[in-house]
């Protein structure tokens, strides 16, 4: 499945079905992030249920503390 | 009248009128590390009227790779960052009033310094400071600009009270245990990019060009060639404890306890005693000289090296324990030598 993630087209494994799976794949599931799918910001609680589909445009922003 | 600002005033969104507004403004900068030195230099060169710089740390060799106001001399002298930054900033532009504070500012101290401040800039390395700034911004209706970076990644967002969501609206919890400059390192282009986003937003706010303010959460990874910009305006939460209809500003509550923090990129723990406690550095140095170890002193701090650990004590009662990230061990050392 091809997804455009943060501006780049990436092919992700077929084992990824949900946004939650995607965050785990990128090891972001324990991090504080905002996820946008096709210009809709997702509620944190719904990430584990919402499906990702080929061609989705995903934006993931992680809050970090350094400076 | 020289032409110091001529190239900036030729830029039509600023112009002569904007330049005058910049000169009439007071910016408070919390933190004088990588983002802090970059933002400070840019704002001072741009001709801001007054800049308040607050920092709790002092210059070390590992800072010089990216903290652009500091020199080897500052690292050798272990000069507090706020002091070193002010010295350099005054050389850059003597027309600007720069007020430097060597302190780990708590909400009460911050409230004192906020009088007349038009904008707060985030250059801290921790979320405690950011959540405090976020609540102060709401309480006193002062805009602030979040900025952070680690490895080749960076993020920024401009918070306008009463208009945009606040940082508390955007976070489902306060991030802890994430990547730090300690574990993931940091490269200077990531700093420069965040700083550019922050400084340009500051300029827009200072010249009051509100329609130009970005309104989006921006993030990037310069090494991975990624860039993201999200419109988060719908995340404004009416029941937010910081900016909602009945705000309680939870991060301004002062809890009477010793505060500790692991410092980003420093393999160090900061210990801050519960009440404001100024002590005589002379007395501290004398006490420590009786211990096994090596004591050094300058007008701002006492440094004490022992057991593969180094302890640096500031006048306001704070201590930095170097060579450990273990808070308990750091507290033990603190109590062992200072009671």
TrEMBL record, chain A:
Q: Which ranges of the sequence are coiled-coil?
A: none
The record's InterPro entries line, in alphabetical order, gives: Beta-grasp_dom_sf, Mopterin_synth/thiamin_S_b, Thi_S, ThiS/MoaD-like
Which PANTHER family did the record assign? SULFUR CARRIER PROTEIN THIS
This chain's protein is named Sulfur carrier protein
Biological source species:
Halobacillus dabanensis
From TrEMBL, chain B:
Origin superkingdom: Bacteria
* Recorded GO CC terms: cytosol
**In the UniProt record, does the keyword Nucleotidyltransferase occur?**
yes
Per UniProt, which keywords does this protein have? Nucleotidyltransferase, Transferase
Q: Give a GO molecular function annotation for the protein.
A: sulfotransferase activity
Q: Which residues form the THIF-type NAD/FAD binding fold domain?
A: 5-241
Q: Which residues form the signal peptide?
A: none
Q: Which SUPFAM superfamilies match?
A: Activating enzymes of the ubiquitin-like proteins (SSF69572)
* CDD domains with a match to the protein in the record: ThiF_MoeB_HesA_family
Q: Which family does it belong to?
A: Belongs to the HesA/MoeB/ThiF family.
Q: Which NCBIfam families match?
A: PRK12475.1 (NF009123)
Return the protein name. Molybdopterin or thiamine biosynthesis adenylyltransferase
Organism, scientific name: Halobacillus dabanensis
